[in-house]
Request: fold
Amino acid sequence: MNLLMPQLGETVAEGKITKWFKSVGDTVKPGDNLFEIETDKVTMEVPSTVAGTLGEVRVTAGEVAPVGAIVGIITDGAGAAATAPLPAASKAPSAQPAATVPVVVTVRSAQPAKIDPFFEVRTPDRNFGAAKLPGGISITPLARRLASEAGIDLSRLRGTGPHGRIVARDIEDVPRPSRALAAVEGPGAAEIKALFDSDSYEEVPLDAMRKTIAIRLTQAVTVPHFYLTVDVNIDRLLALREQANAAAPKDVEGRPAYKASINDFIVRGLALALRQVPEANAIWAGDRILKFRRSDIGVAVALDGGLITPVIRQAERKTLSKISNEVKELADRARSKKLKPTDYQGGSSAISNLGMYGVREFTAIINPPHSTIFAIGAAHRQPIETETGDMAFATMLSVTVSCDHRVIDGALGAELLGTLQRLLQDPVTILV
Reply:
C-alpha cells in the first residue's frame, strides 16, 4: 500500500514529515502511528489502517512533500504491497491486480491531536494521487500546489482531465496578474545575495508557515486597501471588565471560570457591530459579493516564525465568558499546532492587537478573503475635553480598520467603525 501525503485543509499544498514512528522492516498494525506531519497550520499524527510491514520510506523526517506524494510503502511482509479493504461503493474491477491500486490518505479532523484517516481507492492514471474538492470535484496535487501559489479560486474552475479532474494545465491557462505579483515579490535570491559579502549573512530556509504568509501577503497586495482610525474612551469598559471578572464563578480550587480581556470585549463588540451594519459583513468573491448572516471573527495569534488567525464562530450569539474561554483555548492549540482547518478558515473580519507590545497605533493588512481587519493599539491616558468644557484624563484606545474598497466604501467603513466605537464606549450594550 502506498502511503501518501494527506490533505489537511483546502489551501494546504504540501506537508513536512517531522518524524517516523516506524522504521523500515517494522511490523505495522491497524491504528499504529506511522509518521507525524507538519503544515504551516497544524501538526498531526497519521496512523495505519492496514497490517503489514513498513517496506520503504521515501520521504524522510525533515523533508517536505506535496499533497498526494508517496512518502512510504507498507508491504504484506513478503514484499508485496498490502492493500486496504475496498469500500462497497467503489470496488475496483476484478481484472485489476489489488497490489497496483493506489490509495489516497485523507485525514478527517476528528480530534485535535490525533486523526483517524479513511481511504479512498482510485484506479491508477497519470493524475495519480488526486484529492477531492467540495462538491466531488477532484484535483491533482500538482494542480493544487500551482493554484495555491498563484492564489487561484479552485471552485470556479472546470477541469479538463479525466472525469472533469482539475490538472496542471487548467491552472496554467487561468489569466492572472503574474507580472504584477512578480514585481511585488522583487528580485530573486541570487540577485539579492550578490549585493552582499558572502560572510556577512546567514541563510535561513523558509518553513511552510513563512512560505504561506509570503504567498498570502502577496495576494493581499492586490486588495485595494483604505484605512480609518478612531480613538475610543474605554474607562467605562475597564470598570465593567473589572466587575465582570470579580463576579466570575469559582471552581472548587478557587479558580475563576473566565477572565475577560479588553480584546474579548472587542471581539464581541465587532460581532455586534457587523450585525448592526450588515452591509459591511461581506467579502469579495471574484465576480460577486458574499453577504453573511452571522459574525465569524478571526483573532490573530502570534506564533514562533509567523501568525495564524483562528475564527470565533457566531460571536454575536456568544456570551463574553464563552468568547474569552474560546479565544484562550484556540490560542493555546494554535501555539501547539493542534488547530483543525475548520478552526482558522472562513470569517469576514479579523482583529489584530499589538497593544500588549506598547504599540500606540498601526495599520494591518487584510487577510484574504476577509474584507476588514481591525488594528488595536495600546491603551493610554491622555487629557480630553469633557461635555461641560472642562479638561479631564481618560484612557484612550486607538482602533484602525483596514477596508477592502471593492466591498466597503468609505462611508460604510466609517459607519462600521463608528458603531464599534459606540459599543465599546457604552460597554453594557455588549453584554446584552
